[in-house]
Design brief:
It is a single chain. This protein has 3 helices and 37 strands. By secondary structure, it is mainly beta. The chain folds into 4 domains: 35-143, no CATH class; 150-221, no CATH class; 247-377, Jelly Rolls; 390-509, no CATH class. A hairpin with a 7-residue loop joins strand 13 (193-197) and strand 14. The radius of gyration is 47 Å and the shape is rod-shaped.
């Protein structure tokens, strides 16, 4: 054998002359191949001015001195090119590419082709440098994870698993801009799934929480594209059962339904588009039962509440429960938020109290710390809510006959008329009167009449008639009693209808 089997190094023969030549040849090959480093690979022509010891991997269709040596290693040695044929397993460092390649018997491959398992790596960086905290770091424009199909020996599924040590630890995906957090998803300090956002990377706002036990989701800040329920009734001021035409209201007097003058009274007017111009205090007492039904809680104590209006012409001082605040003036929906005290478990008074004239429209009180868009209820639904607190007794025709109210003469001075209410009221109502020729709220003579079926004629009284309700009353039915200072004519037990003269109005009220 004249050469070694792997590197083809020449061997000394017995009694060989000039042994130093053969020995030097072997050393030159070792110097070229041990710790092999190529200037570049794929070179098809010799460089113009190679340095002694330069090595290249000859590419296809080579020319000049490289012609016919495709795939071989070219070594510039003693002013001439020598060529070495690679063997399987040879490794080389390619300086031009900063890469390590391995000869597989037919062609050269990158080292990564042969790195099938990498265990117990301390750090790994892809396009960037990892550190002690970020022991795996990648800097790239896209990443792909694809399931291993059954035809490749996999299941076709792909599950990305993250695991944390304990309930109070954080397991999340953090989304940043300029390496400052703006959003985060995951199990953030608990085992409930959450999504939170941040304006600055320091203050975080919970946007969604999914309970791990029930799967029930909550939106702590609400949903802006789904308007929350308005805790106020008649926020558009279009229900006006009392027939208020605008102007001054004394303290405690009601104008538009559910709205009454606060301390010191107020002056207000409404235009056709719902714009209210107000000076002074205007109140609505929010029924805790109504509010709690919308809030899903027994009361509003400790709740975050937001009061908003549209297009206020100037600053609008308000009171929400015990909390005073001011809605700033400006265009669009303007709002202020407060947090009620834990002791405020009863009805909540909302007061609009501009010291000078302020115009606005679409008043809304809602649970949460920001205002959502206005969404008024249909008129019939709004009227239904209002009639739970106040409703005139229904009349018809120019004679103002009480609809469906058949009365009975129980004695010479009393007529009782049971009335079933069209809308159930929030509590047992009280009778109130307005309109017509009343003296101190009491009907004067001949303002009431009783129609008897027995004689088919109007039966009147010459005395003054008082109208009261008979206890017991209920939220859905009352009995009106007509009491005359003189006797009603007619037969005891006769029945008939109540007639109201001079457009007088009887109403039932269960305001807070």
């Amino acid at each position: 054998m004249t050469s070694t089997p792997h590197l083809a190094l020449p061997l000394l023969a017995a009694a060989q002359a000039q042994k130093h030549v053969t020995h030097n040849e072997a050393l030159a090959c070792l110097d070229a191949l041990v710790h092999l480093a190529l200037k570049e690979r794929g070179r098809t022509a010799p460089p113009a001015a190679p340095a002694e010891g330069d090595r290249y991997l000859v590419g296809p269709a080579a020319t000049g001195a490289f012609a016919g040596h495709e795939g071989e290693i070219a070594l510039f040695d003693l002013g001439a090119w020598r060529f070495l044929s690679p063997r399987p397993g040879w490794r080389a460092y390619v300086e031009a590419e900063d890469a390590v390649v391995v000869f597989g018997g037919g062609e050269w491959h990158d080292l990564g082709r042969y790195c099938r398992i990498l265990d117990q790596l301390d750090r790994l960086g892809v396009g960037t440098t990892p550190d002690g905290l970020n022991r795996f770091a990648a800097k790239l424009n896209a990443a792909l994870f694809a399931a291993l199909g059954t035809e490749e020996g996999g299941t076709g599924d792909l599950r990305f698993v993250l695991n944390k040590a304990g309930t109070s630890n954080v397991l999340s995906q953090l989304y940043q801009r300029g390496f400052s957090g703006r959003a985060e998803t995951g199990l953030i300090g608990s085992d409930d799934f959450g999504i939170r956002v941040s304006p600055d990377g320091t203050d975080w706002i919970d946007a969604l929480l999914l309970d791990r036990a029930t799967g029930v989701g909550t939106f702590p800040q609400g949903l802006s594209n789904l308007p929350r329920a308005n805790l106020l009734i008649n926020g558009f001021f279009r229900v006006n059962q009392r027939g208020f035409s605008g102007g001054s209201l004394a303290e405690g007097a009601y104008g538009y339904d559910r709205w009454k003058a606060g301390p010191g009274g107020c002056t207000l007017a409404r235009t056709a588009d719902g714009t209210i111009t107000l000076t002074g205090a205007l109140d609505q007492v929010v029924d805790v039962a109504h509010a709690s039904a919308l809030a899903g809680a027994a009361h509003l104590a400790g709740a975050d509440l937001t009061l908003s209006v549209e297009d206020p012409s100037g600053p609008l001082p308000v009171l929400i429960g015990s909390k005073a605040a001011t809605i700033p003036g400006g265009s669009g929906r303007r709002a202020v938020s407060v947090t009620l005290d834990g002791s405020e478990t009863g009805h909540v008074t909302v007061r609009l109290n501009p010291p000078t004239a302020c115009s606005f429209r679409n008043v809304k009180l809602e649970i949460g710390s920001y205002a959502t868009p206005w969404a008024g209820e249909p008129l019939d639904r709004e009227e239904f809510h209002c009639r739970r607190y106040y409703q005139p007794l229904p009349v018809s025709g120019t004679s103002y006959m009480l609809v469906g109210a058949l009365g009975q003469r129980v004695s010479a001075n009393f007529i009782d008329i049971p009335v079933t209410l069209p809308t159930r009221m929030r509590a047992n109502p009280v009778l109130v009167t307005s309109g017509g020729a009343w003296a101190g709220g009491v009907p004067v003579a001949n303002q009431m009449a009783f129609f008897s079926n027995n004689n088919a004629a109007w039966v009147t009284t010459s005395g003054t008639v008082n109208v009261t309700t008979v206890v017991p009353a209920s939220p859905s039915a009352v009995t009106l009693r007509l009491q005359s200072t003189a006797s009603f004519s007619g037969t005891a037990g006769s029945v008939g209808h109540l007639h109201l003269g001079n457009a007088a109005v009887l109403a039932l009220q269960a305001e807070l």
